[in-house]
DNA sequence: GCCCTTATGAATGTCAGACAATTAAAGGTC
DNA sequence: GACCTTTAATTGTCTGACATTCATAAGGGC
């Protein structure tokens, strides 16, 4: 009996329905702002219960594909995927991807700085006084000796985001957001000494100066140095962590 | 009773619960492979019905944060976010972002080629015979005159993905996937003439040759030319589309 | 003792029906 | 016309039930 349609019974009904609606949205058969049929209508159309339809809709809502509104003339509407929502999704996914897949500090660092250097020429050309001001503000913050390591990292992210945004290309900003923000948890594992902070602040200043003078080459150099320096800091931390882990390993075989 | 915490009633219960569990995962309080409490237990813990818990779990499943398994010793497990799953999510989001936000062809094109040029030095240094072979294969495919425009674009994407993958940095590949793949729908709107195809194939060949010779500078140049050429093709199409749209506009005021 | 079959129980998947909460629009009052 | 009330449609939540799946335990045949 089941041989009649064994093609895709391995998926939940709610997943199948969500996929059907998602396809309709992605392929443009439903446009932004359009209202989906009510849950009752959908359950009739798909021949399932309302609960199943609701689970499907929640799946779509989790991807910001639809938004729901209660009350008369409420319902589920195809969402205009804002850059903001896309940013936060991308950042969450990138962060998890790095934390769950044992991506080395080197790999993540290389990806981040490679992408940032790509932005540098555009940023040098198009930077505004606003983006420069943001970067200077963060540099000032990073110079405060009583700043916690976490706050230092957060400020670092803000500065680099300002660099990326200075390129004035929202698509680029979106793509870079993941690479820059996802590094923060890795950076948070590093204890920044006064000396290392000074070095970083100096490089941040060189970078900002380069943008101010619209000197793409100097910005590229500053980013190269920053990458190399970050890498040495990260390597030191990872190495000492590895040593500690080895120490804690039981000397005899387990059990 | 409920007056005790009216702070955040603007969100659904299922959204709140999903957020609570998501935070636990992102912050590492739950690790990959760990089993969540059963739906019955969760509904008791959060003081809500099982349906509400299920909607929350579906939201998390939609983001590939958890996977569920039926049967004895089944349940919801914290998912290891694979690069593969992250790729497809990122691509879907990027594609929608572009189609829904009236991003100009210029902006998308600039972002894509800026990012690809960032990969070029690494790709030139690390390219394998495998990545070169993939690129040559796609070039051969693109040279077939009877290839449809859609297939030509798909082949273009494959070739550029090979370029990105040649950098041998999975994080970079992941971040770039969105930029490269999301361009395809925009590219699909272009009708490629025999002449334009020839030009693109020539530039693809130059790019591949550059990688083979590990000549980062030549690869950069080829990508710059490719960007410029793609841009002119895109501009032509957009301009003619704009003209047609104007023609179709009713000559008098509507109504 | 060993293997195959069968129960068992725990868990998710689905359904049906009910009620609460919300909200825009229609209708009524002044 | 401005303001208030009613109304109907829709989502949000709860309850209880049954179906389905699946690892393990129990049982029977040899």
From TrEMBL, chains A, B:
<dbReference type="GO" id="GO:0003700">
    <property type="term" value="F:DNA-binding transcription factor activity"/>
</dbReference>
<dbReference type="InterPro" id="IPR036388">
    <property type="entry name" value="WH-like_DNA-bd_sf"/>
</dbReference>
<dbReference type="InterPro" id="IPR000524">
    <property type="entry name" value="Tscrpt_reg_HTH_GntR"/>
</dbReference>
<dbReference type="InterPro" id="IPR008920">
    <property type="entry name" value="TF_FadR/GntR_C"/>
</dbReference>
<keyword id="KW-0804">Transcription</keyword>
<dbReference type="InterPro" id="IPR036390">
    <property type="entry name" value="WH_DNA-bd_sf"/>
</dbReference>
<dbReference type="Pfam" id="PF07729">
    <property type="entry name" value="FCD"/>
</dbReference>
<protein>
    <submittedName>
        <fullName>GntR family transcriptional regulator</fullName>
    </submittedName>
</protein>
<dbReference type="InterPro" id="IPR011711">
    <property type="entry name" value="GntR_C"/>
</dbReference>
<dbReference type="GO" id="GO:0003677">
    <property type="term" value="F:DNA binding"/>
</dbReference>
<dbReference type="Pfam" id="PF00392">
    <property type="entry name" value="GntR"/>
</dbReference>
<feature type="domain" description="HTH gntR-type">
    <location>
        <begin position="11"/>
        <end position="81"/>
    </location>
</feature>
<keyword id="KW-0805">Transcription regulation</keyword>
<keyword id="KW-0238">DNA-binding</keyword>
